[in-house]
Amino acid sequence: MTTARASWASVGRAVLQDLRPTPGRLALSWRVAVICTLMVIVAMTYGIPESAVSCFVIFFVMKTDCGESSVLALALIVLASVVVMVLVPLVQYTITYPVLQMLAIAVCSFVLLFLGAASKLGPLGGIIALVIAFVLSLVGQVPIGEIATRALLYAWLMAGAPMGLVLLFNLFFGLYPHKVLRRELGARLRLSAEVLNLNASEQQLWEALAQGIAPQQTRLAWIRLFHLLPGHEQKRLAQANLNTYRALLALAAMQPEALDTLQRQALAQACLQLAEDLERGKAMRDLQLAPLPPAQETGFQPLTELQQALTSLAQGSDIGQPGPVHDSFFVADAWRNPIYQQHALKSTAAAMICYILYSAMDWQGIHTAMITCYVAALGSTGETVHKLALRIAGCLLGALLGFLTIIYAVPHMVSVGSLAIVVFLVSLLGSWVFSGPERISYAGIQIAFAFYLVALQGFGPSISLDAAWDRIVGVLLGNTVMYLTFTLIWPVSITGSLRKHLDSAAQGLAQLPGLWNQRKAQAVQQSASVAQNLATAEYELELMLLEPDHLRPSSEQALAWKQEWQDMRKKLEHRHTQA
Asked: How far apart are CA 435 and CA 451, in angstroms?
């Protein structure tokens, strides 16, 4: 009993830790909530069906900066337009043949889910597959071809309208990439100051390292693409990205408590000064750092490295450019590894099973079962079990909020504004959780999705508890079918992915000593890549415990991998101090 209580207490502490505010989290959350609220108002005003799906799309497209969000929104509009043009003749040919409709759903789902798993299309593949399957599943209920064609146009609006809102909102209220980048670089320096002042834990430092520098490099790419800053400012931020991460690496290799108090305070003050200048986009002020003791003037000592990083940052020194990242649209083994085809087949099979079930029972109210299969498509068995728990927890909480809204709020609503307030608050909660760590992220979107399904039926506030219950039954059915499909058919152990990330980290570590001596910028990028691989491996080590016995490695093997991970993390933290 005591062990169980301790376990639940540790889970509770972890959840509270994951829900804590982080830089940029509130800014993203309220923007997602506002756009979802606007989408609900537009859907009810113009009669766009399934506003829950439209809001779901917003969650996946909205990113930390408006550059990436806008590009994804434009891509989805183009993709949806192409799909609708293909579907118009397809619907006309299959409208009187249910078997052909099912075949069309299966083929389109397989292709798009495969692309989503094996390419950069990612979640957009599942979203488009969802729209196609949903529209084609309704074709059999519409005996007139002209009406079916109109339904296709509404399907385009389900994807196009929220993306239009994302583009318009980002134009006026979006967080521009350079502002987000400056805030993130400033946060690194402020964390460095906290570490030097002995107010930050080793875990906080590791979490910052685990984020790597790739997101910031992506923001730099958007800045260049949209010409948001002059060329010299772009170069300054590119160097700041390297030097701020370099400072974190130096702090990971040293023990700040062993430094002289005045020296620690001077370094911390320098970090705060540079953070303020970076965040405001001002010219860097000169640093007044004490000279190093003679014993630390030579070699790659952590303190030397930290001072050099801060000095380079203040002076705008060029430490070189990291090597180009060769990244193709498809993953490296997209056509060789059968796991991607199997993933698409399993997801498609789960969706078709749900479609056949509710069609055979003539229970259209649980059509959300098929929708859930596209929302919940995952990779390994460990991921499936973990995300299943998050989705069910999120679904139950979202459904509870929806039922409470129907029972207590809807009877007192006199305008769409009253409903908009409730939608905003629940969307804010869902987006806050969704923008958190991967351990809890999926619960956030399920909270919002379940609430939308329950509270938003038709083109106004829902007043039917039966219809709301049917939708939740559908969500739970879809989750159950997905769980059974992914755990019984071609179950995928997460150990393969774990081994891949550990090997990549080991390979990167082996190259670091030479890089630090010859190409510092490349060494920073390589260190960040190693940290990201180790962070992913850490998450996979946790998920491995959720897999069934026949997929889980022996306890000895699990301990060996855990030890290997710990050894590589120590090497990363100290590798750049070795000549």
From this structure: 18
The pLDDT value recorded for residue 202 is: 87
> Which secondary structure element, helix H or strand E, spans residue 461, and what is its range?
strand 460-461
**Which H/E stretch holds residue 457?**
strand 456-457
Q: Kindly state the helix (H) or strand (E) to which residue 108 belongs, with its residue range.
A: helix 98-118
Tell me which DSSP letter residue 256 carries: G
> Residue 42 contacts by C-beta under 8 Å, 6 or more apart in sequence?
48, 161, 165
Q: Which domains does the chain have, with CATH numbers?
A: 23-175+335-488 (no CATH), 177-315 (no CATH), 495-575 (1.20.58)
Q: Which one-letter amino acid corresponds to residue 329?
A: F
Structure confidence by residue, pLDDT tens digits, 556-578 = 888 999 999 999 998 887 754 44
| Rounded Cα distance, 351 and 374, in Å | 7
For position 1, what pLDDT does the model report? 47
SS3 content of the chain, % helix, strand, coil (to 5): 75, 0, 20
Radius of gyration (C-alpha) of the chain in whole angstroms: 26
Instruction: Please say whether the dihedral angle defined by the alpha carbons of residues 8, 14, 17 and 18, taken in this order, is positive or negative.
Output: negative
Distance from C-alpha of 61 to C-alpha of 69, rounded to nearest angstrom: 6
Beta bridge partners of 460: 457
* CA dist., res. 169 & res. 35, Å (int): 7
Give the residue ranges of the chain where pLDDT is below 50.
1, 3-4, 6, 294-300, 576-579
Type of residue at 185: L
User: Under a CB-based contact definition with an 8 Å cutoff, are residues 95 and 146 in contact?
Assistant: no
User: Which phi and psi (to 5°) does residue 460 adopt?
Assistant: -170, 175
Which residues, in sequence order, are CB contacts of 15 under 8 Å at separation 6+? 440
Give the dihedral sign, CA 251/254/258/262: negative
> Amino acid identity, residue 558?
A
pLDDT of residue 74: 93
Encoded tokens for 560: 């060996």
3-class DSSP state of 514: helix
Q: Tell me, what's the pLDDT at 143?
A: 54
**pLDDT value of position 379:** 55
User: What's the confidence (pLDDT) of residue 15?
Assistant: 76
- Residue pair 183/23 in contact (Cβ under 8 Å)? The answer is yes
Structure tokens at 248: 């974190």
Of the candidates 408, 455, 407, which has an alpha carbon nearest to the alpha carbon of residue 427? Answer: 455
In angstroms, rounded to a whole number, what is the distance separating the alpha carbons of residues 322 and 525?
A: 6
pTM above 0.90, yes or no: no
Q: What pLDDT, on the 0 to 100 scale, is given for residue 297?
A: 43
Q: Residues 424, 429, 435, 441: what is their CA dihedral angle, to the nearest 10 degrees?
A: -130
* Residue pair 124/68 in contact by the 8 Å Cβ criterion: no
Alpha carbon distance 274, 337 (integer Å) = 47
Rounded Cα–Cα distance for residues 465 and 448 (Å): 18
